[in-house]
Design brief:
By secondary structure, the protein is mainly alpha-helical. It has 6 helices and 2 strands, in the order αααββααα. The longest helix is centred in the C-terminal third of the chain and has 17 residues.
Length: about 140
């Protein structure tokens, strides 16, 4: 199982945004510089986040992005869904009779990986941007 950079960067950028958006809208350029993420890539990610109503853009000289909801109401699952990130531990579809290995039956460890996927997705469903903000503040010196 692997999260792509799109999912990881979306979370990083939103935590950064959440740290600063109570002051003014945050520019993608600032997030790009602080987090070391390509501005072009951030524009693609934020287009999806805006479309899914996780952020909204503010136009003008002091424009940028702000969160559309309170950080405690934005779950990591919402972010992954917005950027088309899927957390899967098996290649086959749950409803399929065929297994990941292309055979007629599922592999001998299929249920293990299925169970792991449920745990991972539950973990992401229970974590919000606020949790990440709090964790980040606790480790700053």
């Amino acid at each position: 199982m692997k999260l792509t950079s799109k999912g990881r960067y979306a979370v990083m950028a939103l935590v950064d945004l959440a740290r600063f958006d109570n002051i003014n809208p945050v520019s993608l350029r600032d997030i790009s510089l602080r987090q070391g993420i390509s501005l072009d890539y951030l524009e693609q990610i934020f287009s999806k986040l805006k479309k899914n109503e996780i952020v909204k853009s503010i136009r003008g000289n002091q424009g940028g992005y702000i969160l559309n909801k309170n950080p405690k109401d934005i779950k990591l699952t919402n972010i992954f869904h917005a950027v088309d990130e899927k957390v899967k531990t098996v290649q086959c579809k749950k409803e399929s009779k065929k297994g990941c290995n292309g055979k007629a039956t599922k592999c001998i460890t299929h249920n293990l990986w299925d169970e792991l996927e449920v745990h991972i997705n539950t973990f992401f469903e229970n974590k919000s941007l606020k949790d990440l903000l709090n964790n980040n503040r606790e480790t700053r010196v």
